[in-house]
Design brief:
Elements (H helix, E strand, L loop, with lengths): L7 E3 L5 E3 L10 H9 L16 H15 L5 H8 L5 H4 L4 H7 L1 H17 L8 H21 L5 H8 L4 H4 L9 H18 L1
Antiparallel strand pairs: 1-2
Helix pairs in contact: 1-10, 2-3, 2-7, 2-10, 3-10, 7-8
Length: about 200
Amino acid sequence: MPTTPRAWQRMLSGRRLDLLDPTPVDIEIEDIAHGLAFVARWNGQTRGDFAYSVAEHSLLVETLFTRLNPKAPVKWQLAALLHDAPEYVIGDMISPVKAAVGPDYGILDDRLMAAIHIRFGLPATLPKTVKAQIKRADKISAWMEAVQIAGFSEQEASKFFGRPKPEIIQDLKIDLRPPKEVRHDFVSRHQELLEAL
């Protein structure tokens, strides 16, 4: 008799998250922060003694989103912080790999994102305008990462991600830090945003 493959992952919190049918009650911010702090962007191909984590990237995207949209409601800042949250269980795939995997990756990502949003009081699906604003901040972050830690020239990064306005990235520098520090800052920022809602 064939057995059904296991589709859940046990989290450090003790929760069991069903990847095919995730529910908001099985999502904890500590699990998200821990997972994202250990998931490397750029497939780990960055300069420094620590990987550049998705948690660190998410903090930067939220900062950039807020600079680009200073009057945005706090809930959309929270959405920016959580924009890559599903990667705490499905990892960070670079765009060429996502394209090769096909639409199934996107479906899995969307289900997880909807459960995460609901868990923290956001709409399951973000308005298109908000999604576009977060994507803009995400591309600026990618440009900064490419130039500062991934070995791209400014010209090459601008070709792929567009050149950001200098005032948006002014005084922002990527410092690679231990996962423990990044995890702590991610949870702290999440808490600040929840309290401000």
